[in-house]
Design a protein that fits this description.
seven-stranded mixed β-sheet, 47% helix, alpha+beta, three-stranded antiparallel β-sheet, globular, binds adenosine-5'-triphosphate, binds magnesium ion
Length: 551
């Protein structure tokens, strides 16, 4: 309870149950909480990093090496620890890779800041020093970055391989990186002097079963839906596809209406009329030359029956995001009014086919001509393998996209961090007093990446770091850690490249989060409100929100 003595009277300012911690105590608690998070995922960094198994409240198990996923599943409570989770999330949203690095780096910046604060350096001095060093670090990174060609497939493949190297897919990295490069290059478009690409245009669909090598790139869209009527063809060649987001049903009135029927003829007339409307819908679709109809909403049983008679293949209740991808892949237009449908609106694909994948039926819209949206169907032994494979593919797609959009790379294995660290340290010599201390601390903190990679690779981290440092002193700027062989090496020679964008974002988000945590000197926490207002969301609720589910 926070109270003040005003005019001899004790006045309560904050509600009962509110807790407050201030100054050093608050700072230390925050830093400690953040460090626990960083420490917990440190061992998963790099190609020799370990995976984590997480079990949620429902008993569902996730096995992952991906920083953002691990932290997301951890259900962290402490507010400062939550900020670390946000670092990973931002990194994931912005560049898709480097989440573990960003969190580990934030942790190290905080550890070193704590040491300075203990030596009576004021936190704002540390923050100022970190900001100055951070800005310079970004410029240095850009300076050492290697320019590449956005369409250099070999380079894109190398970058994808590094992103996958630390994941479960490492065994199949050649195959998967090829797939990722082809997928992103397919959806990339020229924009001004460069390229733009959106990984959202790549639909990653997963289905447990088969092996990881059965994962395929589809020049079109795969839908986790079956053909609606057994009488319809299961495969349509030279597909002309109507994309509809209107229901192929007789609309129900919004208000209750009563129909007074006096004799059976009237009833029959009523039903006939309804059937006529439905038949007209099918006639309209058929008249445009469409042989496939993909509908975002429902398709009436009678419509299905008439469509089957006309050999039209139909799929219903397709997600809106999938409809958009279908339009991009097939070149068709999504129409909300059936009356507007013309043959020019139809999408085109070599074939549309329902195929059995494991136990489920899926519909493949394949062989699209120069599709601007494609799909990857991820296969693998078990559900957890497929889940982690999907995350690794996401990382690979993102890094390829990063390089296509901003064609600059740096060598990995902690080489880029070590080089920036060396140059920053040299700069720090020119500063004086406490400013130098914080600047130096930032430079030293960057070395946590090569150190951790060495540690996870079973090397002696201090020895490895000293070797890397001395090589950088001798101007071998891409000297870093090769955790696979367990030695210090030239990472550019090993062709371990990462997008500059990933490194830049990691420095930015780590610096910002560390400074934000350091600036806090007062934590006022309201007492927890009792649970029970809203029950936790069950799977049913979330399904309803997305508006999917076949009825
Ligand atoms: N073959 C390799 N040799 C040396 N270093 C490598 C190699 N492959 C990857 N690395 C390094 O491993 C680090 C990346 O590890 P990892 O992918 O586990 O974490 P992350 O990218 O920071 O986070 P996440 O992938 O979980 O989002 C980078 O520093 C990268 O340079
Ligand atoms: Mg990675």
């Amino acid at each position: 309870m926070l109270s003040a003595n005003i005019g001899g009277q004790t006045t309560i300012i904050l509600k009962e149950g509110t807790s407050r911690s201030q100054g050093r105590e608050a700072q230390r608690a925050n830093i400690t909480a953040a460090l626990v998070i960083a420490e917990s995922i440190r061992s998963s960094l790099g190609p020799k990093g370990m995976d984590k198994m997480l079990v949620d409240g429902f008993g569902d198990v996730t096995i992952s090496n991906d920083g953002a996923t691990i932290l997301d599943e951890m259900d962290v409570q402490h507010p400062a620890a939550k900020m670390m989770v946000e670092v990973a999330k931002t990194q994931d949203d912005e560049v898709g890779d480097g989440t573990t690095s960003a969190v580990v780096l934030t942790g190290e910046l905080l550890t070193r800041a704590q040491a300075l604060i203990d030596k009576d350096v004021h936190p704002t001095m540390v923050v100022d020093g970190y900001n100055a060093a951070g800005e310079l670090a970004l410029r240095l990174l850009e300076k050492i970055a290697i320019k590449v060609k956005a369409t250099d497939k070999a380079m894109l493949r190398k970058v994808a391989k590094v992103a996958i190297a630390s994941k479960l897919l490492a065994e199949n990295k050649e195959y998967i990186s090829d797939l990722a490069v082809n997928a992103v290059m397919q959806v990339a478009e020229k924009s001004g002097t460069g390229y733009k690409a959106d990984v959202e245009d790549i639909k990653v669909e997963k289905k447990p079963g088969g092996a990881l090598t059965d994962t395929v790139l589809i020049q079109g869209i795969v839908l986790d839906k079956e053909v609606v009527h057994p009488g319809m063809p299961k495969r349509v060649e030279n597909a002309k596809i109507a994309l509809l987001n209107c229901a192929l049903e007789v609309e129900k009135t919004e208000f209750d209406a009563k129909l007074n029927i006096q004799n059976p003829d009237q009833m029959k007339g009523f039903l006939d009329e309804e059937q006529k409307i439905l038949q007209q819908m099918v006639d309209k679709i058929a008249s445009t030359g469409a042989n496939v109809a993909i509908c975002e909403k429902g398709v009436d049983d009678i419509v299905q029956h008439f469509m089957a008679k006309k050999n039209i293949l139909a799929v219903r209740r397709v997600k809106q995001s999938d409809m958009e991808k279908l339009a991009k892949a097939t070149g068709g237009r999504i129409l909300s009014n059936l009356d507007d449908l013309k043959s020019g609106h139809l999408g085109v694909a070599k074939f549309v086919e329902e195929r059995k994948v494991s136990d489920d039926k899926m519909t493949f819209v394949e062989g699209c001509k120069d599709p601007k949206a494609v799909s990857i169907l991820v296969r693998g032994g078990t559900e957890r393998v497929v889940d982690e494979a999907e995350r690794a593919i996401h990382d690979a797609l993102c890094v390829v996209r990063n390089v296509i959009v901003d064609p600059r790379v740096v060598a990995g294995g902690g080489a880029a961090e070590a080089e920036v660290s060396r140059q920053l340290r040299a700069r720090a010599q020119k500063l004086s007093g406490k400013e130098q201390l914080a600047f130096q601390a930032y430079a030293d903190a960057l070395e946590i990446i090569p150190m951790t990679l060495a540690e996870n690779g079973g090397m002696d981290p201090i020895d490895a770091l000293m070797e890397v440092r001395s090589k950088h002193q001798a101007r071998q700027i891409w000297a870093g850690i090769d955790p696979i062989k367990g030695k210090v090496a030239d990472l550019s020679r090993l062709e371990v490249y990462e997008p500059l964008a990933v490194k830049v974002q990691a420095l930015k988000s780590a610096g910002e989060a560390a400074c934000m945590i350091l600036r806090i000197d007062d934590v006022i926490a309201a007492s927890k409100t009792k649970e029970g207002g809203g029950a936790p969301k069950g799977p049913e609720d979330s399904a309803k929100e997305e508006g999917e589910g076949d009825f």
